[in-house]
Amino acid sequence: MTENYLELNHVSKVFQRRTGDIVKGLEDITLSIKQGEIIAIIGTNGAGKSTLFNTLTGYIEPDEGSILLNNTDITKIPQIKRASIVARVFQNPSMGTAPRMSVFENLMLASKRGKKRGLSLSLNAENKAEMAEYISQFNLDLEKRLDLPIEYLSGGQRQTISLVMATIQKPQLLLLDEHTSALDPRTAKQVMEMTHKMVTENNLTTLMITHHMQDAIKYGDRIVVLHQGKIANVYSKEEISSLEIGHLHELMEKLVEIEANAS
Ligand SMILES: Nc1ncnc2c1ncn2[C@@H]1O[C@H](COP(=O)(O)OP(=O)(O)OP(=O)(O)O)[C@@H](O)[C@H]1O
């Protein structure tokens, strides 16, 4: 396991609101993550979770600090050039997929990301059979729906396809952005279990934003608590093993209270 596979060194980002007020989206974030580690990110609204992901994808550039992934400084690498190494699954099942295109076309698009060869050449029977076999392991009968436009799939099926698309090229970093929160509890549980299987089987270094404290405890190797752009707390694996969900809920309530008193 490579230590310090992902390193954030003193990463800060300031925003200016329309009112002219300055807000610290991220303040001096320093964090080292091992290859294959799963980090659960929790925090109240406005804590900086999305800003953190946006700096990792390259959607925004930090004002200060650096980000190293697999020994490469990616701080200033544009989003489009990071697309094949940093993958993100969004909360909304329709984001990250082309809804009118078929399941097969979407999967082939994902497997071609960052490569030069065109999509049309790859839409052949051989690739289709390979893809059918690949997705049959998820037991959702999706291999029988390869020709269906993505928009006709259920939310859970779409999130499964989004996950397959995000992991098909084995990204160096996988970002899960509340990816089960739009699903009903039963489907959310299934998708979370599938996610864990994909991530552990492929040893994917993963950051997962979640509001489900039980998922943070169950699946996180560490839990990072963000508050007002800063790291408020980090729970190690040992600490997580004796952590009660109630404790995390209380912590969240306390942080909301601090914010309310400050404003
Ligand atoms: N483009 C922007 N312009 C101005 N302020 C911004 C911008 N993006 C984020 N912010 C501010 O930065 C802070 C962190 O926002 P961020 O969206 O990262 O929080 P979050 O933890 O993802 O919150 P939520 O759970 O509500 O999505 C907030 O105060 C937010 O209002």
UniProtKB/TrEMBL annotation:
Keywords: ATP-binding, Cell membrane, Membrane, Nucleotide-binding, Transport. It is a peripheral membrane protein. The keyword NAD does not apply. SMART domains: AAA. It is found in: Cell membrane. One of its GO terms (molecular function) is ATP binding. GO terms for cellular component: plasma membrane. SUPFAM superfamilies: P-loop containing nucleoside triphosphate hydrolases. Residues 6-253 form the ABC transporter domain. It comes from the Bacteria. Gene3D superfamilies: P-loop containing nucleotide triphosphate hydrolases. Pfam families: ABC_tran (PF00005). The keyword Cell inner membrane does not apply. PANTHER family: NITRATE ABC TRANSPORTER ATP-BINDING PROTEIN, TAURINE IMPORT ATP-BINDING PROTEIN-RELATED. This is ATP-binding cassette domain-containing protein.
